[in-house]
Amino acid sequence: MKEEARKDDHKEPVEQYFSLIRDLRAGDEASVPKLMEMWDQDGVFEFVGAPPLVATYKGAVAIQTLYKNRLQSSKMPIRLEGKAAAKGTREATLGIVNTDVTHLRTNGNRAVAGWRTTIGTTEGAGFDVAGSHQFTFENGKIKNLRVSISPKADDSRTANLTASELTVTDVGRLSLAAWPVV
Fold first, then answer.
1. Does 159 have pLDDT greater than 90?
2. Less packed terminus of the chain by CB within 10 Å, N or C?
3. Alpha carbon of 83 to those of 12, 26, 80, 136, 161: distances in Å?
4. What residues pair up with 112 in beta bridges, in sequence order?
5. CB count, 10 Å around CB of 154?
6. Which residues pair with 99 in a beta bridge?
7. More confident residue, 45 or 69
């Protein structure tokens, strides 16, 4: 029984993390210091997806900068190319970035959360992407966070959004603007 209780030790902090990320995406400045309270001072945040979503942030200052930059990206303008050359580039605004955690498993000092994130513009272009967060905790704080992102966008589940007019470059721009996996 003690082993079973220990397995769930990190479920609550992972759920809190994703709740604070929703607040961050909504523009709540108070979410940044709350997120930082969850981190070890020497923590490491890694994006381990396909380029350009590959990066490593080491230490509290770098991780805090990542979160502050994500806070500022809400509603940011994006130039999209579109597939039809005649349409040329067009301005769009980042609108929706919503993560649905589909499963969460914990074991000892580790937790893995699988998710699908919807990313879209206010103008209606967008897609879903799948991925996972792999947390390692030390002394109740996040010591390491590895975020894996699928290299394939999916618009089959995305209500009211379409990826059909987006180029690969557009998907990349939206992904970078959304920081979909923070």
1. no
2. N
3. 43, 30, 9, 41, 16
4. 105, 134
5. 14
6. 117
7. 45
Average pLDDT over residues 81-93: 61
More confident: 3 or 107: 107
For the sheet with 54-58, list strands across it. Answer: 54-58, 39-48, 141-149, 126-138, 110-121, 90-107, 77-80
Evaluated on CA atoms 177, 21, 69, 48, the torsion sign reads: negative
Q: Report the CATH number of the 2-178 domain.
A: 3.10.450.50
Q: What is the band of 78 on the pLDDT scale with cuts at 50, 70, 90?
A: confident
Q: Which residue has the tokens 């996972």?
A: 132
What's the pLDDT at 3? 42
For helices 11-25 and 60-72, angle between their N-to-C axes, nearest 10 degrees: 40
Sign of CA dihedral 101, 45, 106, 26: negative
Question: Which residues contact residue 75 at a Cβ distance below 8 angstroms, ignoring those fewer than 6 apart?
Answer: 27, 93, 94, 95, 122
